[in-house]
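Um, can you check?
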Amino acid sequence: MFKEDLDAIGASNTDGKSYCPVFDGWSEDKLKFCVQKWREYTGGGGGILVEEGTATPFSEDGVEVPGEFIKDDEIISPIPLSSSPTMYATKLTSHQVTVNMIKETRTICDNDKELHCFMTGIPFDFWEQYLTVDSVLLKLSIASVVTGFVISAVFLFWMLNPADPNFGTMDKIIASVSGGLLIALTIILCLVPVIGVSLIAEVSLTAFSNMAFVLSAGFATEYSVHVVQRFLSAPSYIKSPTERVQYTMEFLFQPLTLSFLSSSAGIVCLSFTDFDFNERFFFRPLMVVMVVTYFIGAFFLPILLTKLDFEFLKVGHKGEADADNDEDDLDKFYNEVAAVERSK
């Protein structure tokens, strides 16, 4: 300590006692001098930034030891950064306890405007994601829904362009936007149960599970965009929404089911892994994604479409049974519908 500081408390360097200085109110030069002496006499590192080439080479029996230096470097002042002291977290026995520890310590240190410090270390580096995992999932979900809507609307408009010339550009835009909204709704209806069922299956919210959850938006779009496109472009001879859905699903149900089975087959292989992490955070959520998106896209969405009897959703070819202009297919279709009605 400085002599004037010892005099201020009535102490001296010869009384055999040690004193802990209080830094409040010290000048930068005074703090620099104190820290340098602390490093030199105690060997303390503290992660202080120092001027290169200012340390004294270490000598033993008058012989300089290569690569060894006394810690009497001139520190950079004002001190821009230091990493001290080291603290130890104990009894981190669960995920939630670790998260609580991060929140509590950062309230005291990181979020304090006067201390200007921040906590770091293995618990912080690996568990910090859990502080914002909920908000990150929400942002990703919103982004995926918006992206799915935009891409689907553009795809539908492009696919409807070669439709009947009796429908103008505005009719196709309205149909495309409406179809995009239906697909966006489908994505939402997939995201919610995927997240809920996964949590029931003991899949925690992590960066890995979030990736799987958002992947459901892609599968939901894949299933629903084909259903909606064929529903919109069904021949205008088919007026009833129920018949339009039947026309749609007779063509699409088999390929949608085969797509579901082929994708699920690859994911099922993950269930045989010896690593619990892979089984929990990849197999479980991805399997939930496959089942939920297939059910919503191939079953729920067609049922919903049967309730949508709106003219702006009918932009198919007039006077044509399908895109191949095959009148025989139209007759076959109506005969099948009549047979179904008679069987009731």
About this structure: Confidence is low (pLDDT under 50) at residues 320-326.
